[in-house]
Amino acid sequence: MTPMSRPAQSRAGALALAAWLLAFSAATPAEEPGSAAPPVQSTPRLAVVDMEEAMRGSQAGRGLLAELETLVKQKREAMAAMDQEARDIRAQAVELAKAGDERQLADLQRKFNDKTSDMRRFKDEANQDIGRKRVEVLSAFNRLVMPLIQTLGREQGMTMVFRKDESGLLYSDAGADLTRQVIQRLDAAR
Question: pLDDT at position 11, please?
Answer without folding.
Answer: 53
